[in-house]
Amino acid sequence: MSRxxxxxxxxxxxxxxxxxxxxxxxxxxxxxENSLDAGATKIDVDVEQGGIKLIRLRDDGGGIEKSDLAxxxxxxxxxxxxxxxxxEAVASLGFRGEALASISSVARxxxxxxxxxxxxxxxxxxxxxxxxxxxxxxxHPRGTTVEVRDLFFNxxxxxxxxxxxQTEFRHLEEVIKRMALSRFDVSFNLQHNGxxxxxxRPVDSEQARERRLASxxxxxxxxxxxxxxxxxxxSGLRLWGWIGLxxxxxxxADQQYFFVNGRIIRDxxxxxxxxxxxxxxxxxxxxxxxxxxxxxxxxxxDVNVHPTKHEVRFRxxxxxxxxxxxxxxxxxxDLRPKDAVPAGA
Length: 345
Ligand code: ADP
Ligand code: MG
Known about the structure:
Heat Shock Protein 90, 2 domains, binds magnesium ion, DNA damage, mismatched DNA binding, ATP hydrolysis activity, ATP binding, DNA repair
């Protein structure tokens, strides 16, 4: 008797879900990325019980065609890339075609959508089991709503790893914060258990940006931060954002946001460059606060390193490192001497 068999689509998706769907916050991250990729300008997130019971995300983006709805839930189904070469300069946040398939394999998912040229909306539902989707008409303006109920209802082992409602909600809020920092032009609203928690309007002016920063990171940060915007013509690199004065150093690395082409990342090269730039002005064990945006030719950075895409690989990491270091070092060196003295020195 043959011992090798193909996994059912559901099981294959559940296994893949292990990599991208860790907790409610990871569901929200994937759904937000989809909305941004769809060109949304307004995203409303509604959650119950820290997202464990319900996550509902509504956007005003381009929507999904009726004929694509069921396919959107299948694994390896994406509208964002066609061939391998597309990956070399991918501009969208998603491209793996795994999120909706993974989420729907471990939760009860409803996807409702309407495109500009459809007169009605359509809805498709998936509940883990057979992955067979049934289409029904629905009422919805242009855009998409994804509803995810009872996360891990069919995977008790994963359910056990979820923390208390408040803890899950904190993680989820952090994800929204990062997205709101990455896209000032988009409005984000968050509601938890029927209570409005976050309401961020789209902003265009410098002042409005700083108001959004203040509401996300606290007024102290922006009062003790300097704005920078530096481009290197030869390499096409641009670094902009806000860095905290040495006097605003923290005991933990809890206010460090670094975006590469709009995607939040954690990266050793970046961390090292920033730390080195601050090394003359910060005491050992203190951490700088910053919100920084690096922009570069997408072809110079590989984002397909990990399913969650939190990591990247720079094609010329030395160049990137030195640019970040030099830029920040100069900005920090230009601070008035009063500012540059660490508190308590
Ligand atoms: P990926 O984002 O990697 O393409 P997903 O599983 O997250 O894979 O989504 C599958 C597809 O469903 C996307 O490529 C996109 O075409 C469509 N889609 C998902 N969410 C939305 C949305 N909010 N608005 C419009 N299209 C969406
Ligand atoms: Mg996606």
